[in-house]
């Protein structure tokens, strides 16, 4: 799949890769500071190619091959860009697969376009992570940097360069919280979360499931699974969850 670009009204571009095939289509939404070339997205692309399913993955604003600066991204921006991807680059029902923050974005997209969604899979879902995880863990030094500079460079858990957390982004994210309200989802939802996830506790997936009003929501806790859930065993679980949703979408009873 070659890289294509979706132009946005402000001149920025969202880089994406698209694979034609049968429906429902599958859209992968990456996590914060992650790109569409990651292990899960690439594995899904190969799987969909082998099985003839339509598949689309993209880089969020400020990520990967898309334009923009990460420090200028917000949950609202990422949600609106993901809605644009759904509206302009796909047709018919879609299954959303969101990884970490991508599951939060997927939930917001599903709220905006419920008639287009055939199912949702969350992998190590991190809904409301700004409020639930980042803000409570800020050190005095981090709070001082946010107040002084508007940006704090957070150390990466994977040995990469520190990445920016902007005060504006934390404030804007408060307008998009989902755990404190009800999500009316008339489609099946599958949430996978590792019990050894040291970045996002499995409780966030459980709480997300509790916030969903829908006919078919299930959480699978993966013993010993870390945040990435990118090993052979975890990818097989992801594949089974996706197969369940594809089967349900094909069922006349849906």
Mean pLDDT: 95
Query: Which parts are unreliable, with pLDDT below 50 for 5 consecutive residues or more?
Result: none
Please give the alpha-carbon distance between the first and last residues. Answer: 32 Å
CATH class: Alpha Beta
Estimated structural class:
alpha/beta
User: H/E series, N to C?
Assistant: EEEHEHEHEHHEEHEEHEEH
Number of strands: 12
What would you report as the Rg, rounded to the nearest angstrom?
17 Å
User: Main β-sheet: number of strands, strand sense, barrel status?
Assistant: 8 strands, mixed
Strand fraction equals 15-25%
Tell me, what's the shape? globular
- Count of distinct structural domains: 1
Helical segment count: 8
The CATH architecture classification is: 3-Layer(aba) Sandwich
Helix proportion of residues, in percent?
A: 25-40%
Q: Would you tell me which CATH topology applies?
A: Rossmann fold
Q: What strand line-up does the widest sheet have? A: 1-2-4-3-5-6-10-12
CATH superfamily: Alpha/Beta hydrolase fold, catalytic domain
